[in-house]
Structure formats: C-alpha cells, structure tokens
C-alpha cells in the first residue's frame, strides 16, 4: 500500500537555502522519484506502472512532450515523469465523503499543493448556486446540467471551451467538433500561454507552426543552442539526447539568465559513466543573458555572420538563400542598422563574447536552436523567434539533417491538441473539411484565446466555462482578475483527474466531471481502447493505460464529450451528424474521422498498430515552405528589449524542480538549493544591497503596469529574498504564486501570450516581518 498521507500544505517556516548543485539527475533523482512513487502508489504498483511508461505496449507519460528514442530503455522515464505518473496513479481518493467534510470556503483556503495531494476524483459533483458544499450527482444529472446551460445560451459565443495539453488526440478532435457544432470557435488552450509565440513566428517565416527536427537530428547536430530552457527540470529525458550528441562531437551552448544544473553536467542514471564516473558535461559555454535580450543575441550572431560575409564571403549559403527564401535584403539592412552598443546593452554580453558565439555558429555545418518559455513570454517574443529563424536561414540550416528549429513543448499532447483543431483561428481548409465530414457549417469568426476569454468573462460576456483538464485559474495570468472573471460565469465545468484551484474558484454553479487518466484502463464497447498523442517532434503514437480505474463507472474524456454532444445535438437539424454512441464505444471510429479531416493521418489505425509511431508531414523539413510565397521568409525586425526603471527589477516566473506547470509535487527545488518552501525571490547580491535589503528579508513583490488612470499595482505577499547568480537587474520567483503579478493586458505582440518572463517589480520589505536569516542546508 502507499505509505504517504495527504499533505497539510507547504510550511515556509523552515525554509533552507544552500548552494545550487553543479549536476543534475544521478542517484538522488532516482531515489527521490522512487520515494514519491512509493508514497503515492506503493511498491508493487510503482514497479508495474513505471515500467510501462513510454513503452510501445504501454502509456504515454502524462508529463512532458519530449519524444521517445526508437530503441527504448526498459526504464523510459525521468524523475519528473515518475512524479507525474505517481500523482495520477495514486491510491488516494477524493469522493463524496471528502466534499461533505470540506466546505467550499475551507477548500478555498488551501494551497495548490494541498489540493493536488488529496488524490483522484471518483464521482461527478455539483455545486449548486449559493451552496456551501459540493454534492454528489449521477453522470446523467451532471451532464444534463451542463447540456441544459449550453442549450440555454442566447449566443454560442457565451461559452468558452478550454483545453489542457494532456487531452488525447481523439478527445481533442471531438471536443472541438462539439464546440463548433454549438456554433463557437472559443477554444483557448494552454498553448496560448506558452508556445503561441513559437507558432506565430514559425508560421509567418516557414509556413508551419511546429519544429522541423527529429530526435535523430538532435543526435547529429554540430551545434545546439539551448535558449531560455531548463531541461533538467522541465524535460529531463532531453539530457540523454544531448549526451548522445556530445558523444558524437556536438557543441552545446546554454543561453539563460540562470545557470541550470542539468546543462552543466548530466549524471545519466542508466549508465555506469553517469553513476560512477561523474557523468557528462553538457554545455561547452554558458551565455548568461539579461532577461529579454535574446532577440539582440540572435541579431548579434546574424550581424557578425553578415559582416564576415561582406569581407570574406563563404558564410551565407547563397544557393539556399536564392532558391528557397525571400526577404534577405530587408533582413541584411535591418541588422546593419543595429548598433553593437545596443546589442551589448540588451544582452549584457560584451561584444567579444557575442562575436565568439557568432564564430561558433559560423564554424558549425549543422545548427539547431532549441527554446522554451524563456523566449516565448516577452512582448517581443515573436520578433525574437523570427530572428532565430533568420540566423538559421543564413547558412541553410532548415530542411537538412542535424539542423533546424526545435521549440520544446511542455504538456504531453499540447502539440497534438492544436493539430486536432483546438485553436480559435483554424484555417478555412480545416473548417471546410470538418463541415463536409460531419454535414454542418462550422463558424468562421475567430474565437477567444486565453487572455480574450478572461476579458470576456470579466466583462460578463461568458456564461459557461468548460475546462478539459488543466488548472485554468492557477495557470492564467493576473490571478485576482482571473478569479473574479470565473466567478462571473453562470456555470463552470471541470473535466479533471485531481482536485485543483479551478474546482474551488467557480462560477455561480459548478460541475466536476472526474475522468480517466493516461495510466487507467479504458474499456468501452466491451474492449480496451487506446488513444494517441503527438510529441514535440510531430511523431504520433498510441497510448493504452493498464491500471484499474479509481471508480468502476469513471468515464474517459471521449465518453464525456460524446455523451454531452448527444444531449446538445439531439434535436438540432443543423448540428454535426455523428454516431455519438458509436464513437464512444470504438475510438477507431474517431480516428477514421480524423484521417478524413486532418492532413497526414491517412491509414491512421494501421500505423499505430502495436504501438508504432509515425511522423506527420512538415513542409519546412522538406524545404517545401507553405508560406504565401512558397519560400522561407527572412524578416527585418526592429531591436526591442526591456528597460528597467531605477529601483526596480525585471522578474521572470518559473518552475521549481518539484513542480510540473501548476502541479506542485513537493516543497523543494533541489537544483537551486532551496528546501522547505516556495515563496522565495532570487536576486543578484548587488541588487539586494542597492535596494537596502539583506538576504533573508521578507518582502512583498509589487508589479507595476501603466493603466488609464496611472500605474496599476499587483501584489504577491511574503517572499524571502535569496541571493542568486542572476544578471544584475533581473529576478526570478515561482509560479503559480507569482501569476498574480502578470497583468492581463501585458501580452506578446502578434501571439497574445502573457509576458510572464518580463514583469517590472519593486521589492517592499514587510513592515511587520522580522528579518529571518535563511538556514544553509
């Protein structure tokens, strides 16, 4: 049996901060993963479950979207993957007795950690208007409540259908069909808050909003630039791929404001070298860039390459540029106009250092740039990523082995959800094909993305919010505004495996629909069903859970959507024509529809037999660019970077190591030396002194944003100051605790992504707080 009792929340009174380690993974990671697994699942269940993670006859990890190697290890999971599996496969249960014992007010006073640690949801629950407690309901009653509210809408756009990145391809496809059958494109998803900037920039320049590389390309690259990304915590299996690339002679450059342990040294627990011989040094160079300076960095590399080309020639791949691109002259002129002094100021890197990095790029025949949220959550993120593409185009590093763009997605199927149509602005070709397949006319008007959905809820224009997975309230920016917006809806619906903040900050009424997880056996129509997912590199593969579900009548995502759709469209002649009952009982029927609608999914069922994977078409990978010109686009982008007012800091929000997105697994951030707490702010020692503070002071973080009537402030209270190796003027703290500081209106140009890596803050010492030295540990 599992030995760990549900947690009582995070007690910050014994916060300890020691030095950050110089390596990641190794035996401590294995030990920690096993401790958490056994606490949640017990010994035998842990062994049976973990050995099926990412196997061809098993289930896809519910954590990150890093792809599997073709030759898979018997233990094809990482520390954070094991934590994600343990949380889902836990033996703890949250049923009607739990909700009877805990009022809504009680649950609202609990933190995200406590809520998530209680266990798996087992029964549909309804919160009636003005009720103090959730009450149990039958599946029919719960689905009828949702269907009745949706049917009563005066306008379909009064509903919002949110999706998290863990939803399967099959469920996502049916979910968007249901929303569009109702008559709305209000389909925000977690991509809006993370990689929307990547999709926007890549679509503009390459014609496809996805990365162009495969796992084999990572192995074969000469140079890998890992920018704004922390693989050791966010997708540790990437370190194995980087280690393989290093063994083949690759150079790795880490670009980040913070030194990350995984990019220093990787101790692979699956090899003797990793366990005994000290592991592999990953980064050959660490470029400690200022927050928001990445565009300047890539412009500096391009400027250096073009200056050498003008003097000596032989740098630019002229044949590629002339045959496959447009806009080269505009780009060259834009980069020539940028002063080196401005590039130094923006990056914090001396000119010689920028030129040395340019020389690394010039010397490499095959270059890949990998990135994550550090590049996508700034106002100028789309321009930054266009300049990443510009640099790669100069040397023809698109559409050939060992080279290309690699946006590393977070949630396990966030890319697949978008492929299935979870997007507020799907192109006409998709909508027309969807309509022809199901005999209806999908709406064409663009819907709400995440930020627009919050604004609409805030303004009273949304009556129903439905979340397919995820924790919208904690994940979204401007927490207090988001919470108030959610409370203005008439009904909030959450399809969830576990309890989270979005179940306790609700509309006037609320419904919880518990759902099968990735690890659970899904039996429909008298047979075991499987679903599919798409990883970061456009490979699609099957996933089949094996564990007994937490409740015998628990429904899958597919079953919930099909049963709700059957209720919504029973009497509507203009609705999608679908055999909802048949789709619930046989997911292969869903895949047949997908094959008819979504390009690249022909012979879908055949290609996933026995767990096999297949890669989706990607024109940019084949140098068949699906832009209006039919070519890749160089772009001229004005240099942008944040200016920090006197006495202020530029804050980035980030994850701790014991965390995955808004799911908090524990109290520690082992790779930054923090134990026993989360309310810390990492600040350069010189900034601590200049602000009149000392390490250990307790402060409030106050963000400042220009509003119509002056500066608008938002406050996150009670953070301990920690001296850390971050660029002067920059700071960092964990989300979701600091999402309250990110203004709803502070979004990236073009993509609308919240600017969570670029928040102007001041630190206010708490008057009632006594300085408490942080114990080294």
Count of domains: 3
Instruction: Report, as a whole number of angstroms, the end-to-end distance.
Output: 32 Å
**Which percent range describes the beta-strand content?**
15-25%
Q: Numbering strands along the chain, what is their spatial order in the largest sheet?
A: 6-5-18-17-16-7
Put simply, the count of helices is 31
- Would you report the number of β strands? 33
What's the assembly state of these chains?
single chain
Shape summary: globular
- Uncertain spans, ≥5 residues at pLDDT below 50? none
Biggest sheet statistics? 6 strands, mixed
Radius of gyration: 25 Å
Estimate the mean pLDDT confidence. 92
CATH class of the largest domain: Alpha Beta
At the fold tier of CATH, the topology name of the largest domain is Rossmann fold
Secondary structure class reads: alpha/beta
Helix content: 25-40%
CATH architecture of the largest domain: 3-Layer(aba) Sandwich
Descriptive labels:
alpha/beta; Dimethylsulfoxide Reductase, domain 2; Rossmann fold; 6-stranded mixed β-barrel
Topology, element by element:
Layout lengths: L15 E2 L6 E2 H16 L1 H8 L28 H10 L4 E2 L1 H6 L2 H5 L3 H6 L2 E2 L3 E3 L7 E2 L2 H13 L7 E5 L5 H14 L13 H11 L8 H6 L2 E5 L3 H4 L2 H11 L3 E5 L5 H4 E3 L4 H4 L4 E2 L3 E3 L6 H19 L5 H7 E2 L1 H9 L3 H8 L3 H13 L3 E5 L1 H4 L4 H14 L9 E4 L6 H6 L8 H11 L11 H9 L5 E5 L3 H4 L3 H9 L3 E6 L12 E6 L8 E2 L2 E2 L2 E4 L4 E5 L13 H13 L10 H6 L1 H11 L6 H4 L6 E2 L16 E2 L15 E6 L4 E2 L2 E2 L9 E2 L4 E4 L1 H6 L7 E10 L2 E14 L6 E5 L24 E7 L12
Parallel strand pairs: 2-10, 3-4, 7-16, 8-9, 8-14, 9-12, 13-24, 14-15, 16-17, 17-18, 25-32, 29-31
Antiparallel strand pairs: 1-28, 5-6, 5-18, 10-11, 19-20, 21-22, 22-23, 25-33, 26-27, 29-32, 30-31, 30-33
